[in-house]
């Protein structure tokens, strides 16, 4: 019999959410600790390399119930892996994570602060993002699109989007906006939270 109520153990496990080795040990401690440990292990998935995407896909195939736990996906793509892994990850995981509500696409900082880079997001990737049925929060950090029009298409492809964060985002061309575009309607964006900071060439932030 446990000395403390299970809620106390759950709180202790929650405090280890960023410590994967400890969470793995908690999951193996006893049957009562397994559900909370698994929840913290899979609530937020961070993918940096193609091998991690392959491994996570295999986990979903072997344990389909894991998909219901994942609520946030972070694509922190290294310079060598982009941009194909962003497209691959969104294509492979579309429709497989029914409770996913947040996606972050991030360019990790380089070793040298003077060197900048951006993850290129194609229109096809935007279409894949639209296949996540509950996506409500999108975060784009150090991301580049071919045109502002593609940026608009990305946003309008996500009907349930309520929060948008863009930091150091850029596009090469403005793009022509049609008269019947939703952008011409007042309140077309429908966001509850919006944070946008465009790329500044001389900035290191």
Structural overview:
- By secondary structure, the chain is α/β, with parallel strands linked by helices.
- Helices cover about 35% and strands about 20% of the residues.
- It has 7 helices and 8 strands, in the order αααβαβαββαββαββ.
- Strands 1, 2, 3, 4, 5, 6, 7 and 8 form an 8-stranded parallel beta sheet that branches.
- Helix 7 links the parallel strand 6 (about 145) and strand 7 (about 165-175).
- Helix 2 (about 20-30) packs antiparallel against helix 3 (about 35-40), helix 5 (about 85-95) runs parallel beside helix 6 and helix 6 (about 125-130) runs parallel beside helix 7.
- The longest helix is centred in the N-terminal third of the chain and has 13 residues, at about 50-60.
- The chain is elongated.
- It starts with 5 loop residues before the first helix and ends in a 7-residue tail after the last strand.
Can I get a quick summary?
This protein has helices at residues 6-14, 20-29, 34-42, 50-62, 84-93, 123-129, 148-156; strands at residues 44-47, 72-76, 102-106, 119-120, 137-141, 143-147, 163-173, 193-198. It is of the alpha/beta class and 205 residues long.
């Amino acid at each position: 019999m446990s000395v403390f109520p299970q809620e106390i153990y759950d709180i202790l496990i929650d405090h280890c959410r960023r410590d994967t080795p400890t969470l793995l040990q908690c999951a193996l401690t006893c049957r009562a600790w397994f559900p909370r440990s698994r929840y913290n292990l899979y609530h937020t998935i961070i993918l940096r390399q193609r091998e991690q995407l392959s491994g996570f896909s295999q986990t979903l195939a072997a344990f389909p119930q894991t998909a219901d736990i994942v609520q946030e996906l972070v694509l922190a793509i290294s310079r060598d892996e982009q941009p194909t892994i962003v497209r691959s990850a969104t294509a492979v995981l579309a429709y497989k994570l029914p409770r996913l509500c947040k996606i972050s696409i991030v360019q990790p900082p380089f070793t040298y602060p003077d060197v900048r880079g951006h993850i290129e997001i194609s229109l096809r990737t935007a279409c894949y993002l639209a296949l996540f049925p509950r996506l409500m929060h999108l975060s784009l950090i150090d991301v580049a699109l071919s045109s502002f029009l593609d940026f608009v298409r990305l946003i309008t492809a996500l009907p349930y989007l309520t929060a948008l964060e863009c930091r150091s985002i850029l596009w090469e061309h403005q793009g022509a906006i049609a008269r019947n575009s939703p952008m011409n309607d007042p309140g077309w964006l429908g966001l509850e939270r919006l944070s946008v900071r465009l790329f500044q060439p001389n900035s290191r932030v």
